[in-house]
Predict the structure.
Amino acid sequence: MIFAAGRGERMRPLTDTTPKPLLVVGGKPLIEWHLEKLAAIGIERVVINTSHLAGQFPLALGDGSRWNLAIDYIDEGPVPLETGGGMLNALSLLGKAPFLLVNGDIWLDMDFSTLAQAPQSLAHLVMVANPAHVANGDFAIEADGTLVDQGPGRLTYSGIGVYRAELFDGWQLALGDQSARLGPPPRFPLAPLLRNAMRQRRISGEFFAGRWVDVGTPQRLADLDTVLRAG
């Protein structure tokens, strides 16, 4: 699954006319870098959730056949369902097997084949060193690979992970008081579910030391474009 439903407010005015994952960097849209990597490791089907300027995605990417992929699009309507709601909404297409999740607004030089092994945990997250715009990180990796919400050496979640549908078992309880404000359709962040599973020590992680960019501002997009075009 590729998350592509965000509005991209910090990328305006670029995202006024183009969804953030379709912004071009290094000669092709951000999302195409991911599609190429997914196809390279043998993945055959990709689910892409959309909202802002949703109609541009099938026009730009088609059915995925140019990458030997089959793409399913899920239009969430004018207001995206957030990360948790978006993933829950896609489970009927994702099925019961573990699936790879990639944020559509990042770039990295990771070989996705390292994530091909299904984790025993409910989710296995790729963590990176904290960039300048992230002060304290998100989660910490313990010696046995378990992720915890608090602890020394907190790192930043890269936006890539392998997930199991079972993470959503009892998801309303994991949200606590926030569940009273839900949908329909359910609209909620993924982080509370991850933190709830972390308390049960059911989330694992790994550290990626390669190049990773959260393409969250026009300047970061321009800087990445310069690097990629220079080879």
